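Section handout 9: paired folding examples.
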Amino acid sequence: MARIGFDHLAHAYPGGGYALKPMDMVWEDGGAYALLGPSGCGKTTLLNIISGLLRPSEGRVLFDGTDVTALPTERRNVAQVFQFPVVYDTMTVRENLAFPLRNRGVPAAAARARAEHVAGLLGLTRDLDRRARNLGADEKQKISLGRGLVRDDVAAILFDEPLTVIDPHLKWELRSRLKELHRQVPVTMIYVTHDQTEALTFADRVAVMSAGEVVQVGTPEALFERPAHTFVGHFIGSPGMNLLPCTVEGREAVLAGGGRIALPHAYPALPGKVELGIRPDFATLARDGLPVTVQRVDDLGRRRIARLLLDGRPFAATLPEGMPVPAEPRLALDPARLHIYADGRLARGEA
């Protein structure tokens, strides 16, 4: 296991700008992390730099304080699981799982026992003696996951969107199995995905990326309740955070249409584009508050989301259970959940 650090790490491809903007970061030994962001934001590039498949154009990669930037993959002692399964079709499931161990000289009996243990965790016990070529894509990816998990001496296990080819109804089961395995063998795990559900249910800490930049690292709760960047507020949550352009006057946000919203803190003069943010979970359609126009109500089963116009802009709010749409709808906002952003970054209020 290893504590992985980035020291002024950045990467630019020839003829282009930064694929990864300069960053300093630490992945603690034994942690379960996720790299979350849309396609093209730099997640896989960062993962390949950790594994040694790609050398950064700037900065250093540190394993337990040792510079490994120039070391090849095989000398970093990491396991990487890719988006599509990598298995030996002519081998049985048991042989595939044991192969990384046998290749490192682990005695046959120990390798067999470890392969059977991992097979049990992944639901592959019944398939241990089947050849991989006779299995479907789901089972093959389970083998690929198992080969990454079977070694208990790795510095880190890196997952690059490993559930893409898995049948949707099995994804929750596999995430739960990976989480349970991490509790049993607390090796550093880094999981790359564009799916917020995968990231938030697997990881203890999530790094959210946008356009080559890590914009926030935090617990799932922190990312939801206090997004440090408007991108985090928009990308995490369904629906994402509401954002309204405004100006701030002391402890009030003034909307373009003249509406005023009381804030939990006073703010100094803020430069650039200023926005007020609040999640739909903390905005409620009510009989008192700001006047709004209801466009429609989405019934999501466990809750209803009212799609509104506030100050001429789209806005999502919660419609309380059993409450009909008021004849003159108003919007109530939880003042403790209001955030102010300046040029996309969370602004600090004054005590």
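Moving on to protein 2 of 2.
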Amino acid sequence: MYIDLLILIQIEKSPKHGYEIKKEIQKDLGYLMDVNHNLLYPALRRFTSEGAIIRKRNEQEGRPSQYVYEITDAGRAKIAELINAFTEKDAKHEIEFMIRVSLFDRISRENRLRILDMRKKDLESLLAGIQQRQEGSVAHDMFLNEVLQQTISRVVGEIRWIDELIRKTISGE
């Protein structure tokens, strides 16, 4: 899940407490998502128990103590594992895909191409379904047709972008 990846990457950048992790993720992706405590703190506990991060108590005068999280070597390995663990189910979710693309510099060329190919195949299937729906829609249903046309345009645009990423990945640009 991409939230696990985002949490670990924030901690990898520098040790942070929970609120800082949340704010940094929202600063980077605020328009895409909101990180709530029900996602963040269970993940931090899980990563601590797995040894991916360590938790250090930070005493503060006149305020409650904070816990600061630091990445471990196991956590760095977990980041690579999570980036590469891209499934057909993940290919259906734009944010899962976009997060992986933003981290392509961390993975092999073969895995980049695998991820791009999976997303492209999913989009091609989606496009065929939308076009079939558009062919069967009633001509007087103007707004439905507008939505379908806009969706087709977005999907076709993303397929073109993926084709360009594939070309750049193969050529080594």
